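Q: Could you write out the predicted structure for this multi-component system? I'm mainly interested in how the pieces pack against one another.
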Amino acid sequence: MSSWSAPAAVAVQDRLFRALAVLRGIVLVNAVALDLYRAGNFNHPRAAAACVAAMVLWTGFATWAYADPRRRTFLLLAADLGLALTLLLLTPVVKGADFHATVPGFWVMAALLAWAIRYRWVGGLVAGLLLAGVDLSLRHQVRQSDYGNAFLLVIGGPIVGYMCASLQQMATDREIAERSAAMAAERARLARVVHDGVLQVLALVQRRGRELGGEAAELGRLAGEQERELRALIRAQDAVTTRAADTVDLVTELGKLERSGSVTVSAPADAVELPATTVRELLAATRACLDNVRIHVGEAAPAWVLLQAFPDRVELSVRDDGPGIPAGRLVEAETQGRLGVVQSIRGRIADLGGTAELVTGPHGSEWELVVPRSEGPLS
Amino acid sequence: MNEPDGSAPLRVMVVDDHPLWRDAVERDLTAAGLDVVAVAADGREALARFPAARPDVVVLDLQIPPPDGVQVTAEVVAQAPGVRVLVLSASGEQADVLAAVKAGATGYLVKSASREELLSAVRRVAEGDPVFTPGLAGLVLGEFQRISEAPTPDPGEPRLTDRETEVLKMVAKGMSYRQIAERLVLSHRTVQNHVQNILTKLQMHNRVELTRYAIERGIDGD
């Protein structure tokens, strides 16, 4: 039962008892007004006045008593329900055996709801059965409306109790979720500090290695690789907390293509969320473009990837500084059916409803991939 | 402040919390004939030593104990508008780099850059020439795109001209100033001016944003 004593569960209970205090006042005014209106029905007006006085006093006391969680003991709840039952039992004495309305009337609802809030559906059911049972047992003749009221008490108690339990459960779950989110954020912050230190050292090794040459250069190259991997990991970790399940941050994914010394990736600072399939296809197309650079320009030839995000589309450019593709060679290749890579890039992008243009010249080649962000073709 | 003709050595301050790095950078700069007038291991030290050291260039790591690199940038630029800040970042924390440039840094270099790249960057920054990596250009492009998407655009807000956007895009695609100048049939100097204007507009926008924020929060003195 520890989840019922969790701070979040107690906070829910507090709110519900505050609401119940208001309701208690309303049902009291209603009961007193009805008793005054039917003052002529009482066989013993003094006893009736005592009953009403008891209700008023108890309502005041209960409002105070229920305000503090520490005072919500079984004793208090038993007294609450006990008084309601006693007032019901006194009704035939005060009003005579052939009464219609009981002295407390709907006021008994307050005790029922207190039980439902405190002891959940079981409490609601117990209180409902007791109140309904006593009410019906006192009547010589049970009319349709008496049965209806009793039935509502028995049904309403457990329902309210069950809902209280659910609210408390949800509040507790949310508190746990919030706490673990805060812990994850703190862990990420600590990890960032560690990562930063590691990145610093990797960058230093890489730089010194390059300067020293020889075997140290190889160490430097390895450090550079690890630096890139770690950086991609950090980006992925930053992006993982905020995105919806079926979308992926294209910036993070593109970052993984970065190769120090050859491939540079430029992108906006904020995540660019796109459907997972779109990201997969864009990545495949970008990889194909970069492979092309490696094959046609050189293994370590520099290439630049630029991502721009607009409200309606993303634009991805892959550029190299190579000699370009001589005019006519593409046409020639096309006529010979040797345009595999180019066709596959165009095909992937066309499937996404976008366009892929290749601009080539003596200053290098550049692919411009434009893909709409929402469904449908570009306007 | 500095001597463009090189008659007096450039005064440089190095701020980095990793002693290994601080020493390596200091050694490289000194070996190249630059004058390292101060070093600092965190933001507090940096701000305390800056006024007396009067450096021309601050070579600054962003990930330092508080106040962080972005705050240090804003503070030193406010104290001495002529100082140039070159951000040297290891972690590639995109948002931080952008924030530092918006706060007044004129250049950005990843730590894995070579000694030659570092020296050239320090010299260029000292001359007031922004050092833009393609990566930073991509961030700035994204930032101006974000500004233009604002629901209530302010007519007084700095916008990039079409030519500036074009230049910035080319920088982001890894083209050198020379290549851009050739492609757009401009002089090298004109391209440099465009890049400088882009940076000025970004920093101006940052000030407009900060002022608006201050007024909205009622911090404004008037």
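A: Regarding packing and overall arrangement: Chain A has eleven helices and seven strands.
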